[in-house]
Structure formats: structure tokens, C-alpha cells
Write a structure and sequence with these properties.
This protein has 567 residues and is an alpha/beta fold. The chain has 2 domains: 129 residues, no CATH class; 378 residues, Peptidase S8/S53 domain (Rossmann fold), CATH 3.40.50. The protein is 24% helix and 21% strand. The protein contains 13 helices and 26 strands. The strands form 8 sheets. Strands 11, 12, 13, 14, 16, 18, 19 and 22 form an 8-stranded mixed β-sheet that branches. A 4-stranded antiparallel β-sheet has the order 4-5-3-9, with helices on both faces. Strands 2-6-7 form a 3-stranded antiparallel β-sheet, with no helix packed on it. α6 packs across α7. 55% of the residues are buried. It holds the Pfam family Peptidase_S8. Keywords: Calcium, Glycoprotein, Hydrolase, Metal-binding, Protease, Secreted, Serine protease, Signal, Virulence, Zymogen. Secreted tripeptidyl-peptidase which degrades proteins at acidic pHs and is involved in virulence. It comes from Postia placenta MAD-698-R-SB12. It is found in: Secreted, Extracellular space.
């Protein structure tokens, strides 16, 4: 259960807040202009009600990150000794002094807060624009996202009392500007051929059709077993957004035609958040939701799958990503793998918001959860193709505690899919686990694209998987999907199956994958050495020997990974 918000030791700080006029204000977040695609439409009505969130300072985030590396690095004596819910919360819960200081400020302004995170580090408040402008020395205005016409109320700057700077990380959504929904698959086309498999000279791995890729093909290509030990205490979570629903009849159809001979009772379970639902009306089935559930339920056989349908009754300002992270953090037994095939661009989020969400993923990693995101479908121009003068990093792939998954095409050899988003973060520096890999790539790159990307940033994607002409069932018919949206659930299935086998052998789940992938796991991946991801008027980055910002370290080889994880 979430902890109730308390008035802790408010009397200790009440004197300091007795006269608001004496409070010096300090700018906490600021941007010079809205990001590309957003236009200013004038001041917001003073009566407009704002739902804002406050991120309180966590008491020892540095300590949690150190513990995360300890339990996630294969050479560490503590490898695999993941933390409990309580132990993680001990690191991130704000101090009583922080709670008291923030509470006193809110109380002085007649604002009531509600705790909305398991560790008590996030609060929610509601207040009118007029009061928010006064409290925060802000100028909340109406901004329009030009492509969609969606309007939101944001400010380009806000301040808090200088006394609170050591207690409050951010107030949100304020200077974060996100499109109304996260990106979807690159391309979806109806399949008009036959689903009968035909082995040919174009099918060097066997078991793959000539004109599409299905679960049988992926299983063969990546040396995945037909089954793993059946467990009930390990599961994969698939997150769904934008009112796209996973259709049970479509999954049945997928299994009957494309996984013939597999159990006919395979099915995902459904959980909902923020008013989400999973309507089974055929017309309401969603391509993304079907893709993600069919290539987990239908590929990671005997690993339970939960579809989390996230509705639009959220105010987290990042599509519901923050609500989802806190939802799983509140569980005593979270999933071992979370796969998300949605994303955005770094430039839309303030650095403070991006860091806060990334830190939530670090908490999940410390508890033994692998967090996977598709890298995006815009090459070096972000999650989707767009005009740009410098390369656009996607989000949250730049977060080092996320495993970012790019896309490949063809079979043997696989090559980089041209749309596979990759590059270098402008928010996060190159983490220690990939210093050597990134350095080697930069040496290979030389002066190519100099000035178009952040050479000291965290590189992404980390890995890749098939992402072109992926066959799914939709409306009781077949469609082909292109995008890294395909790649993330495929790689998640590999991880979920490995976790089943690890647990059966008395070992821990893999948890945060990146330190493993860039060390003992690297040799268990198939290096992709050709292809590139053009964008921004350039040929962008090229795949090459070793890690590259198109396909990462490569695609999975289950047999080799099985050995690499110590089985």
C-alpha cells in the first residue's frame, strides 16, 4: 500500500515559513523556448485547475545506484542478490526533514498533497493557474502541439523558495512538453499472401517463410527452446497505452495458424491502471497491443504474460510511464521483465523529469526487474522520422538503467533495419559498463558526423532483434509490422525464458541487464556488422564490428546466453 502523506514535524519549520514575503525564490527549472512542434497560444485562464506532482529529494540515490551495480555486475560478489521492496525504499524515501519542509510550504499556501509513490518521494497537488503562478513565480500558458492540435498548459520557468532547493527535485508537468501520445510502430500492412511455410534458398535458417517473419522463424533464428520449465512466480509484463487493446481472439488465431501444436489455452492476464481497460470488441483491438502480447505469450511459451492497459486518466506528463514505474514498484513481487514498445524524444522532457523516471527504473533493476524499451523508428531523427539539423536522441533509451532494443532485418546474416533509432544521449553521460564499447565505436567513426551528436553521451540501443515484416493476427486476419516495437517483446521473451530456467535452477533473475550484456553476455550475442540508420539529411551511423548505435551489441543466441548466465 502507498504510504499516507503525513504532517511530520511541521512545527519545526513553521517559523521559517511564517512570512511568505521573506522567502527568496530560486529558479528550479527553465527552458528558453518550447521544443520543436509546440507553439505558444497565450496565457492560461487563471481558473484552470492544474494537477501537479512534486518529486521530493531521495535520501540516498547514490547508495542505491552503487547497490544496483553490485547486484547487476557479473564480477561482483553480490551479483544476483537483488534488493527487497523495503530495502529499495530505505534508499529513496525522503527524510522527515524534507517531508516537513515541503509540507509546511504547501500548508502555508493552503494546498493539500497526496502521496502517489511507494517510497513517499512523489506527491500530487491540485490548484488553479492563478495560485500556481503566484507560488512558483511562473507563467502558465496554453501551448499547442502543431501536428495533433493537442493543447496543454505549461510554463517555461518556475521557481521555489531557496530553502526548498535541497528538499525538492522538481514540480511536474511544468517545463516538460510531450506529444499527446507516445510513438507507435513504423508501418503496418495487410498480408495478402499465404501463411503456408515454404523453405527455399532465401531461408538459410530453415523454418522461415519467404515473405514474412513469425514466431517459429524467430525461435529457429535465435536458437530458442520450444519450452522452458513452467513457473507461476515469474512473468513478463507488457505495457499498453493510447487505448489500444490486446485481443484474445486474435491471439487464439495467431496461435492456431502460426504456433500449431502449442497449448491451446495460452493466454495473457490483464491488469489496468489510470482508467485503462481491455475491450474485446474486435474493432477496438490495437496493432501494438496484439503485436506485444502475441510475441511474448506466443514466443515465451510457459512464461506467464500480463498485459497492463494504461488509460488516459493520468497526470504524470510522460504518457503514464511514471505511473507504471510506481505501479510495479508498489508490488511485493514485480514481473522479472517489463517490455514497452512506446517512446518519445529526450528534448520534450526536462532533464529533471527524465532523471526522476530513470531513477525509478534503477529501483526496479535493483529489485531484479529487466526494463526493456524499443529504441524508436526514426533512425537518428528520434522515435519517428522528422526534419532535424542535429541528431535527436530518443527517450527513455538514453537512461542507462533501461535496456534499449533496436531492429534488424533479413536472416543470415541479419542487417540493421534502416529505421532503427540509435545514437547518444544528451542527458546521460557514457556509463561505465559501456565505456570501452563506445570508445571503440567512436574511434571507428572518426570525424564523421562531428558536431551532430554528443560524443560523451550514453550510447543506445544496447541490443537488437528482428523488426521487419513481423506477422501478427489482427481482426482475424494477418498483418505485417515494421518497427523496433517488434524487437522489444521478442528480446523480452528471450529474457523471460532464461529467467524461468534460472529460477528452476535455484538462481536469481537477470534483473538490470546492461552490465551483464556488456561483459560476459556480449559473446552470446550475434554481432550485426552491416546497415545504417539514416536521418537528419545524413547517412548517420553504420553498423560495424562490436557495439554500434544502430543494432547495439547484436541479436540474441539463446544457446550461448544459456551458458553465459551460468546454466
Amino acid at each position: 500500500m502507498l504510504r499516507p502523506f503525513c504532517l511530520l514535524a511541521a512545527s519545526l519549520v513553521s517559523t521559517a515559513w511564517s512570512n511568505p514575503v521573506l522567502h527568496g525564490l530560486q529558479v528550479l527549472e527553465h527552458r528558453d523556448a518550447p521544443p520543436r512542434g509546440f507553439v505558444h497560444g497565450g496565457p492560461a485562464s487563471p481558473d484552470t485547475m492544474l494537477s501537479l506532482r512534486l518529486a521530493l529529494k531521495q535520501n540516498n540515490m547514490d547508495g542505491l545506484i552503487e547497490a544496483l551495480y553490485d547486484v547487476s555486475t557479473p564480477s561482483s560478489a553480490k551479483y544476483g542478490q537483488h534488493l527487497s521492496k523495503y530495502e529499495v525504499e530505505e534508499y529513496v524515501s525522503p527524510t522527515s526533514m524534507t517531508i516537513a519542509a515541503v509540507n509546511a510550504w504547501l500548508s502555508e499556501n493552503n494546498v493539500t498533497a497526496t502521496t502517489i509513490s511507494p517510497a513517499g518521494d512523489w506527491l500530487a497537488i491540485t490548484l488553479p493557474v492563478s495560485q500556481a503562478n503566484s507560488m512558483l513565480d511562473a507563467d502558465f500558458s496554453v501551448f499547442t502541439h502543431q501536428e495533433s492540435g493537442h493543447q496543454s498548459v505549461r510554463t517555461l520557468s518556475y521557481s521555489i523558495p531557496s530553502d526548498l532547493v535541497s528538499h525538492l527535485d522538481l514540480i511536474h508537468p511544468t517545463v516538460t512538453f510531450t506529444p499527446p501520445s507516445a510513438a507507435l510502430p513504423l508501418q503496418v500492412t495487410k498480408y495478402t499472401g499465404t501463411t503456408k511455410k515454404a523453405t527455399s534458398a532465401n531461408d538459410p535458417v530453415g523454418n522461415c517463410p519467404d515473405d514474412y517473419v513469425d514466431a517459429d522463424c524467430i525461435e529457429t533464428l535465435y536458437n530458442m527452446p520450444d519450452t522452458v520449465p513452467a513457473l507461476s512466480n515469474n512473468y513478463i509484463a507488457v505495457t499498453g497505452y493510447n487505448n489500444y487493446y490486446a485481443n484474445e481472439a486474435d491471439l487464439d488465431y495467431f496461435l492456431q495458424w502460426l504456433r500449431y501444436g502449442y497449448p491451446d489455452d495460452l493466454m495473457f492476464t490483464v491488469e489496468t491502471l489510470d482508467g485503462g481497460q481491455n475491450d474485446q470488441t474486435e474493432d477496438d483491438s490495437g496493432t501494438e497491443a496484439n503485436l506485444d502480447t502475441q510475441y511474448t505469450t506466443g514466443l515465451a511459451t510457459y512464461v506467464p504474460v500480463t498485459f497492463l492497459s494504461v488509460g488516459q486518466n493520468n497526470t504524470d506528463g510522460v504518457f503514464g510511464f511514471l505511473d507504471v514505474a510506481n505501479y510495479f514498484l508498489d508490488m511485493e513481487t514485480p514481473p522479472s521483465v517489463i517490455t514497452t514498445s512506446y517512446g518519445s524524444n529526450e528534448e520534450y522532457l526536462s532533464t529533471n523529469v527524465a532523471y526522476a523516471l530513470c531513477n525509478a527504473y534503477a529501483q526496479l533493476g535493483a529489485r531484479g526487474v529487466s526494463v526493456l524499451y524499443s529504441s524508436g523508428d526514426g533512425g537518428v531523427s528520434g522515435t519517428q522520422n522528422q526534419s532535424c539539423t542535429t541528431f535527436v536522441p530518443s527517450f527513455p533509451s538514453g537512461c542507462p538503467y533501461v535496456t534499449s532494443v533496436g531492429a534488424t532485418t533479413d536472416l543470415q546474416p541479419e542487417v540493421a533495419a534502416s529505421f532503427s533509432s540509435g545514437g547518444f544521449s544528451n542527458y546521460w553521460a557514457t556509463p561505465s559498463f559501456q565505456q570501452s564499447a563506445v570508445s571503440n565505436y567512436l574511434s571507428y567513426l572518426g570525424s564523421t558526423n562531428a558536431g551532430l551528436y554528443n560524443a560523451s553521451g550514453r550510447g543506445f540501443p544496447d541490443v537488437s532483434a528482428q523488426g521487419v515484416d513481423i506477422m501478427i493476427a489482427q481482426y482475424q486476419e494477418f498483418y505485417l509490422v515494421d518497427g523496433t516495437s517488434c524487437s522489444s517483446p521478442i528480446f523480452a521473451s528471450v529474457v523471460g525464458m532464461l529467467n524461468n530456467q534460472l529460477i528452476s535452477a535455484g538462481k536469481s533473475t537477470l534483473g538490470w541487464l546492461n552490465p551483464f550484456l556488456y561483459s560476459t553476455g556480449a559473446s552470446a550475442l550475434t554481432d550485426i556488422t552491416s546497415g545504417n540508420n539514416p536521418g537528419c539529411g545524413t547517412n548517420s551511423f553504420s553498423a560495424t564490428t562490436g557495439w554500434d548505435p544502430v543494432t547495439g551489441l547484436g541479436t540474441p543466441n539463446y544457446t550461448l546466453l544459456y551458458s553465459a548466465v551460468g546454466l
